[in-house]
Design goal:
Layout lengths: L2 E3 L8 E6 L6 E6 L3 E6 L4 E7 L4 E8 L2 E6 L3 E6 L4 E7 L4 E7 L4 E6 L3 E5 L7 E6 L4 E7 L2 E6 L3 E6 L8 E4 L6 E6 L5 E6 L3 E6 L4 H4 L3 E4 L2 E4 L2 E4 L2 E6 L6 E5 L4 E5 L4 E5 L9 E4 L5 E6 L6 H7 L4 E6 L13
Antiparallel strand pairs: 1-30, 2-3, 3-4, 4-5, 6-7, 7-8, 8-9, 10-11, 11-12, 12-13, 14-15, 15-16, 16-17, 18-19, 19-20, 20-21, 22-23, 24-25, 25-26, 26-27, 28-29, 29-30
């Protein structure tokens, strides 16, 4: 498979890679180097760079020309990708850890360590539309249709209908024993997958019926036996392919794997990268996978001394992301 390394990568660890929902060539990359970079991956060029006051932890898109970003400086920013103008929408009281665009509501949804989910309308004069308090720090959110999944500290999960945010539709505890490190909703809207720091992935379904809940399961991954010693790495990122509903997992072992959650099989493990993989994302037509590669601080300052420079790779994917026996077009 063709792998292409993007020019002008961030200078510090990659926090998130996010493809445009409209253009399969357009990619946003947020970083601990206090920037968000906008790339055209087909032309392999950096089209814009947005500077922030502190590390950027998350970014997302609304339409073809606008993105958003947030991080340790607690500011919610809108990025105009054409004019390179940055607008300040508002503030959380602690780091912003996640954001998603709710298309039907024309609203940005942000989650923070300040234990709130906030809704923003970039077109309105009073841009903060609503604040919802949650019981714990928010680590990850993802949105499919009108279903918002919120992963929190203490292994808590809330599932909301964004049209009715007064109370969660479901409250769950993680199926995994340790801290949630990754979350992604299935492309078909049936459920979600989560990853944790101890090299495990759980596949969950929204339908609360006993029959649907019997289908959920968890499995070990991103592990290796070296000299008879089991090494376990965190699962840092998960991403579902929008066409085939298979998913990619990325770990601190430097590997990316493709999984078919229905057959409970790994379809492919790609060649190992030379550093951990903190974030992966499929583009909107499912033909490319962006892979952020950078040091993730599991080995502290010692490890940082020998860490290579960050990189973003674009992988053209093929039949390995199709479920076995796929008969669709």
């Amino acid at each position: 498979m063709a792998d292409q390394e993007l020019v002008s990568p961030p200078f510090d660890s990659v926090s998130a890679v996010r493809f445009s929902p409209h253009d399969p060539s357009h990619l946003l990359v947020s970083s601990w180097d206090t920037t968000v970079r906008f790339y055209d991956v087909t032309k392999n060029e950096q089209r814009a760079k947005f500077d922030h006051r502190a590390a950027v932890l998350t970014t997302c898109w609304s339409d073809a020309n606008h993105g958003f970003s947030g991080g340790l400086d607690t500011s919610v920013r809108e990025l105009d990708l054409e004019t390179e103008r940055v607008s300040h929408l508002g503030q959380h009281s602690d780091a912003i850890s996640s954001m998603n665009w709710a298309r039907e509501q024309n609203a940005l949804v942000t989650g923070s360590w300040d234990r709130t989910i906030r809704f923003w309308d970039p077109r309105a004069a009073n841009q903060e539309q609503a604040t919802h308090k949650l019981p714990e720090r928010i680590y990850h959110t993802d949105l499919v249709s009108n279903i918002l999944v919120v992963a929190m500290a203490s292994r808590l999960f809330h599932i909301y209908d964004v049209r009715k945010m007064d109370a969660p539709a479901q409250t769950r505890e993680s199926s995994l024993k340790f801290m949630t490190r990754a979350l992604a909703c299935m492309a078909d809207g049936q459920g979600y997958a989560t990853g944790s720091v101890e090299g495990r992935i759980a596949v969950e379904y929204f339908d609360p019926s006993a029959a649907a809940q019997e289908k959920k399961y968890a499995f070990k991954c991103h592990r290796q036996t070296i000299d008879d010693v089991d090494h376990v790495w965190p699962v840092n990122s998960l991403a579902f392919n929008p066409k085939f509903n298979t998913f990619a997992s990325a770990g601190s072992d430097g590997t990316v794997s493709i999984w078919d959650h229905k057959s409970k099989k790994r379809l492919r493990q790609y060649p190992k990268y030379n550093a951990p993989v903190p974030s992966v994302a499929f583009n909107c037509d499912g033909t490319k996978l962006a892979v952020g590669v950078s040091y993730t601080w599991e080995e502290g300052e010692e490890g940082a001394k020998t860490a290579g420079r960050p990189a973003v790779w674009i992988k053209t994917v093929g039949d390995e992301v199709k479920p076995k026996g796929w008969t669709g077009s």
